[in-house]
Amino acid sequence: DYLIVNPTDSSAISSAVESVNNEGIPVITLDRSVDKGDVASFIASDNVEGGKMAGKYLVDKVGKNAKVGELEGVPGASATRERGKGFHEIADKQLKVIAKQSAKFDRAEGLNVTQNMLEAHPNIKAIFAQNDEMALGAIEAIGDKDIQVIG
Predict the structure, then answer these.
(1) Is the dihedral of CA 114, 126, 118, 97 positive or negative?
(2) How far is CA 136 from CA 29, 38, 42, 106, in A?
(3) Among its keywords, does the record have Signal (predicted)?
(4) Do the beta carbons of residue 23 and residue 58 sit within 8 Å?
(5) pTM for the complete prediction?
């Protein structure tokens, strides 16, 4: 027996992983690490590199110093930290991140947060969403406006 999990929150899943560890069941995590507990195998993409790639893409599409918004994932999750780190390695030097807020890796939250961002900052040229679900919410919020989205 194995337990395979794709944790949304690296901290929140830790007690469950520790409980399963106590039962002698190996744990495999996908895409995100856990803060506590033993993991037999961790399978993931390079989230830092993915964040950098997103930043470079936006610079290419909207130009240097363009005003952008950022939809962050679940606060504290490894994917949030890592994707944000990679993105900001590029964005802090070549873009102007004028708004950022957590949308918790959720499409409906991505829609609502993007609507609020655009109301407060109508001059945003692009949105970086830390996952595809939030990007889809952002696209719905943007409608036919000429605003780039990557997620």
Answers:
(1) positive
(2) 25, 34, 27, 9
(3) yes
(4) no
(5) 0.82
CATH for 47-150 is 3.40.50.2300
Rg (CA), the chain: 17
Structural tokens at position 88? 């900001």
Where helices occur in the chain by DSSP H, the ranges are 14-22, 47-62, 78-94, 107-120, 132-142
| Span 111-134, pLDDT tens digits | 999 999 999 999 999 999 999 999
Kindly report, as residue ranges, where domains of CATH 3.40.50.2300 are found in the chain: 47-150
Question: Would you state the pLDDT for residue 128?
Answer: 99
Residue with tokens 């949105």: 127
Q: How many helices (H) and strands (E) does the chain have?
A: 5, 7
